Amino acid sequence: MTPRSFLLTPELSDYVRANSEPPDDVAADLLAETALLAERGEVPPTFQIPLEQGVFMQLLTRALGVRRAIEIGTFTGFSALCIARGLPEDGSLICLDRSEEWTAVGRRYWERAGVAPRIELRLGDALTTLRELPEVETFDLAFVDADKTGYAAYVEELYARMAPNGVVLLDNTLRSGRVLDAQSDDDHAIVTLNAALRDDPRWETVLLPMSDGLTMLRKR
Predict the structure, then answer these.
(1) CA dihedral 16, 17, 21, 27 (to 10 degrees)
(2) Which residue, 28, 115, 121, 152, could crosslink 23 as a Cys pair with Cβ 3.0–4.6 Å?
């Protein structure tokens, strides 16, 4: 239904999912519709985060007591659904994405889940939209799953806008293992960023071997 971590065998991946919080009907239907769209070639099959990552993000949002969140790269809305469900009723999530078509899928499920009032979708160039936000310490959590060559700029712009101890999650930071033998511009961008974040004193950094690599940053 969703991509599996390249680090796990199919059997281990099934075991992980069987021993984690299962998706409810809303999440399961959203994942199933996205998978069907991918089979038809209407959306990229690699853009969907794995189920267990969504569960982790929802749990983390709740555990950190996040009230204000931002997401860069929304796709069909599963990650936004998970974050929004982890927010309190008066919490807020700003989603930045280019595609009205893909995010329209997510909108239907946000409504069905009752979290649509917590989510503000802003369509357009994400970096431009991000730079238009006030440079004040606003967000408790950020999730970045967009163009890989843009990650460094997103992180830089997010820093001033994250609250103290705010957490930034960066997706796909292992590039299916290609960080060890970078081939594409995207691969090289992530390799460079991983090294830069390790040495950046503004962030406490850990690269987690979850899914396709999930880097967690804490604003010092």
Answers:
(1) 150
(2) 28
- pTM to 2 decimals? 0.97
**Contact in structure between 136 and 112 (CB atoms under 8 Å):** no
User: Which three-class secondary structure state does DSSP give residue 121?
Assistant: strand
Please list the alpha-helical segments (H only) found in 146-214. Answer: 151-159, 185-198
Question: What residue spans define the domains of the chain?
Answer: 10-219
Q: 157-210: per-residue pLDDT in tens?
A: 999 999 999 999 999 999 999 999 999 999 999 999 999 999 999 999 999 999
Q: Residue 156, CB half-sphere, CA atoms under 13 Å: how many?
A: 10
How open is the CA angle 172-3-29, to the nearest 5 degrees?
Answer: 120
Which residues, other chains included, contact 103 with Cβ-Cβ below 8 Å and sequence gap of 6+?
74, 75, 76, 77, 95, 97, 121, 123
Average pLDDT over residues 55-80: 98
Q: What is the CATH number of domain 10-219?
A: 3.40.50.150
195/181 Cα distance (integer angstroms):
15
Mean pLDDT for 35-54 is: 94
